[in-house]
Amino acid sequence: MPLKTCLLVAAVILSENGLMGLPPPCDSYIFCTGELLEQVQMAKLFKDDKYFVDMKLKANPDVIWEAFKNLTTSSAKSLSKQQLNNFVQAYFETPGQEFEKWIPDDWSDQPQVLQRISDPGLRLWAKELHTLWKSLGRKIKVDVQLHSELYSQIYVPNPLIVPGGRFREFYYWDSYWIIKGLLISEMSNTAKGMIENFLALIDRFGFIPNGGRVYYQHRSQPPFLASMMESYIHVTNDMEFLKKSIGFLDKEYEFWMKNRSVSVTLGSKTHYLNQYNVEAAGPRPESYSKDVGLGQNLTEAARKELWVELKTGAESGWDFSSRWFIDSSGENNGMLKDTKTRHIIPVDLNSILCKNERIMALFHKQLGNSAKAQFYEEAMNKRIDAMHEVFWDKKQGIWFDYNLMNNRTNAAFYASNLAPLWAECFVEQLPGQDVEMVIHYLEDHQLLWYRNGIPASLVHSGEQWDYPNAWPPLQQIIIEGLAKSKSEKGQRIAFQQAQKWIQSNFVLYNKYNAMFEKYDVNGDSKPGGGGEYDVQIGFGWTNAVVLQLLDQYGDQLASGVMELTSFTLHTVLLICFLFFQFL
């Protein structure tokens, strides 16, 4: 970085955060911090703040910064909306300039999964979803690598699949489901290339950023890399690739254990678990005006704290949810401004890491690294014990997030509560007992009655990771967890939920000719809503989860009317009873 640029960056950071402050999201005084970013985003030149920070620069950042400073010196310090618009038009290009056309070379029009689908309508739909991989494929131009200062895009060498809509770049946890879908579509070369991209990011940053933009550099997302590798190895048995990659998988695990760990003491025993925790100052660049607006009536200290908590909530993937709200009395209650993600130990994050530890123990065993295999196996066993002691509520029969502010669990339903079933990370006193208790919890809270899936929560907060939204990855985690349990009832419920999800997605696809990132659990099928932006279409993980369910249940699923669930049967009988009562 040129000396002049270093001085400019230092001046911006010191002026905004103070000598002892946290770093900004990245060191770009165009995309991540500074007066230009603030004025453009607060003027709301674009409907979505993300649009501006995804634009390409037409000139070197130093040139643009100097031009902006000259403009603010020669006129009012705060430019008018028209002046800002003219400036942006002069020095920035529309988003998307970082990509070149690319069609996956491992795509074929007749993957075997189609032959496993009995219903003709679902088979045709699956073929169309398989075709969508081509429209969601991206290859980053080499110019991004050669002139990285002109882009917010982080360069990776291999082509990839993006989620779609406003999400023009790769996202970490989205990519796990996308890779699972690619493998079902027999696109193992594309899947491998995406994994190689993540390995390159670990080599560069020491961890995998939230997504493929520089403003995500200080935050990650749920750590699914080991699971991606497991899925890939299961299909390809590419042990040479695993051997080359294992050091990077170790390095990512070390990042989470060194930078995202927390201890909980219960009685005389201390347990070590993991949490989300992003240490970066200022509003999120991609949601700048919203973060500033949310904190406008707070003290300066409270405002800065809120911005850290919002970025931490974004790291969780659940941005945003009542799950992270903690009010002044320490209870799981409040609004978005009460977000305190760093004060919660999440069930799902620890389930993912527990699964990672099992995978890594197996990988090292297969590679002949017995000491490393033993290390991960011991870590997994300690985590299973900790998760049981900290998260498991034996009275209600479910796992709950742990609240560090009042030192007890938050006894509210979130779809993430079932993640230990999916990860197979739980302690059973009697075989099958815990699964039956979880099923009873789901029935008792009427969570299996919704027409279009299981909601993210039962709280109607207006945030997108709350009621009434149902999300593809959460459905898959719940269905997979119940399906591989030893409970026949759990397996039956898994199929029923798969049928509901396929039905609702199929109906909406036929209505809009689109796949959505989230869906509403109620009534006739419709897209989800709420949160910071309009519902997006595409959509990488939605397509992938449908393909997984069709791959698993394709000989049983139907595109027509769903079979009666216990709820609908109960409703029909009740209506009949009332009808005859009044005859």
Average per-residue pLDDT, rounded, comes to 93
Low-confidence stretches: 1-20, 561-583
Approximate strand percentage: 5-15%
Distance between the ends: 84 Å
Biggest sheet overview: 3 strands, antiparallel
Strands ordered across the widest β-sheet: 3-4-5
Shape: globular
User: What is the radius of gyration computed over CA atoms, rounded to a whole number of angstroms?
Assistant: 24 Å
- Share of helix, binned: 40-55%
Q: Given the structure, what is the number of helices?
A: 21
In total, the number of strands is: 14
Which structural category do the helix and sheet elements fall into? mainly alpha
Which key phrases capture this entry?
single chain, 583 residues, mainly alpha, three-stranded antiparallel beta sheet, 21 helices, 14 strands, globular, disordered N terminus, disordered C terminus
SSE layout and pairings?
Layout: H1 3-17, H2 35-43, H3 49-53, E1 56-57, H4 61-74, H5 81-91, E2 92-93, E3 99-100, H6 120-136, E4 137-140, H7 142-146, E5 160-161, H8 172-184, H9 188-205, H10 225-236, H11 239-259, E6 261-266, E7 269-274, H12 288-294, H13 300-315, E8 344-345, H14 347-366, H15 370-391, E9 392-393, E10 398-399, E11 402-403, E12 408-409, H16 419-423, H17 433-444, E13 469-470, H18 472-483, H19 488-512, E14 519-520, H20 540-553, H21 566-581
Antiparallel strand pairs: 1-2, 3-4, 4-5, 6-7, 8-11, 9-10, 11-12, 13-14
Helix pairs in contact: 6-20, 8-9, 8-10, 8-20, 9-10, 9-11, 10-11, 10-14, 11-14, 14-15, 18-19, 18-20, 19-20
